[in-house]
Design a protein that fits this description.
alpha+beta; 30% helix; 19 strands; 370 residues; Jelly Rolls; globular; five-stranded antiparallel β-sheet; six-stranded antiparallel β-sheet
């Protein structure tokens, strides 16, 4: 989520010894390697799609069997009194790093990730844009994940954070806006800090996300996302105005035509081929601009368009409540559109699997230049 500042330290603390005790219950075999094979990165899902051990973003979020072992972590999650999304324990090995990336997919557009460090050392560094902090054990932080960020573990321990994804109610953002520390000289001087002790009597009930991706994205939402993207590319002074105008017009045509199809079919299955055709035509129409129109020095507008709008505009695998498993095509869509990180690259990767689920590379499918 885009935020006004890089880092916010929230006025909350937690029982660090109890958290460490619960983390110590897990065996080495229970830590799952990072889905993008980042060296030294592993995790244990606590709230995930269908409560399973997966890396998915789409579908009903439920507690996993791992969370059931952790009474205090359940209390921590419940203490926010928010609708809880995808949440996990994230571990970073000694000397390892989370590489430089930015979270620009649809999931992250209006969700923030709460970080609660459990095992850490002072020389574990969290970088966001040109700022860096050390998040101490038992504290509570959020940050602007839309900006490029990375983590460096320069210690000899396995750093472990509890991370909790939420959209945030008005109550949450009121706390952030009125009570959080946002500048370096404030981080050690928070007032009215609330501590959550462990309680054996706490029932730890919380609500999890049921709806997080649209089957077919409404045209008003596509227009909103597109206008936000237009603002970014217009603000980047290195862009060529004629190329920006061409990109903007082609995306505008896309959401206008999407509205026309929506007025006939809304989410009806009969309209799916028409929606899919519009996505295909859009990606083909901007193929010549993939490396040219950017939101910053490292990121093409086409990358954000794919992961924020075009891919998530159709999540038809969610249409049938009985479809708890994923077909190969749906799995390919998930892989292409739900990845939470964009690496620091200049353009959309043409060797990625195509978002449409065809099983072909993007360059041979919707990215084909012919």
């Amino acid at each position: 989520m885009k935020l006004a500042q890089e880092f916010y330290k929230l006025p909350l603390t937690f029982d660090i010894e109890r958290l460490k005790q619960e983390v110590s219950k897990f065996t080495e075999q229970e830590w799952v390697a990072h889905h993008e094979s980042f060296k030294g990165n592993s995790a244990i899902p606590l709230v995930s799609v269908n409560g399973e051990f997966n890396n998915d973003f789409k579908g009903q979020m439920l507690p996993t069997s791992a969370l059931e072992k952790c009474a205090y972590i359940q209390q921590v999650i419940a203490s926010f009194d928010e609708v809880i999304g995808r949440s996990r324990l994230m571990r970073l090995g000694p000397g390892a790093e989370v590489p430089l990336h930015s979270d620009i997919n649809y999931h992250w557009y209006k969700r923030v990730r709460i970080h609660i460090p459990i095992i850490t050392e002072p020389n574990v560094e969290f970088h966001c844009a040109d700022k860096q902090v050390h998040m101490a054990a038992g504290e509570c932080w959020i940050f602007d994940s839309w900006k490029y960020h990375r983590v460096a573990n320069l210690s000899d321990c396995h750093r472990v954070h509890l991370v909790i994804d939420i959209a945030g109610s008005s109550r949450f953002w009121e706390m952030v806006n009125q009570r959080a520390a946002i500048f370096e000289n404030q981080f050690n001087h928070l007032n009215n800090v609330k501590h959550l002790p462990y309680s054996s009597d706490n029932p730890s009930r919380f609500i999890t996300e049921k709806s997080n991706f649209p089957i077919i994205m409404p045209p008003a939402e596509i227009e909103l996302l597109a206008q936000d993207l237009f603002t970014e590319i217009t603000s980047f002074v290195s862009n060529n105005k004629q190329e920006v105008d061409a990109f903007t017009q082609r995306v505008t045509n896309f959401y206008l035509d999407w509205r026309e199809v929506w007025s006939q079919y809304e989410c009806d299955k009969q309209g799916w081929p028409k929606y899919h055709q519009l996505r295909q035509e859009l990606l083909q129409s901007i193929a010549s601009l993939n490396d040219k129109v950017k939101v910053d020095e490292s990121t093409s507008a086409a990358t954000i368009l794919l992961h924020l709008i075009v891919g998530p505009a159709m999540s038809t695998e969610l249409a049938s409540p009985s479809n708890t498993g994923k077909t190969a095509a749906a799995s390919n869509i998930q892989q292409a559109t739900s990845t939470s990180s964009k690496q620091s690259t200049a353009s959309l990767s043409r060797n990625s699997d195509c978002h449409c689920g065809s099983g072909k590379k993007y360059k041979h499918c919707h990215g084909q230049l012919s």
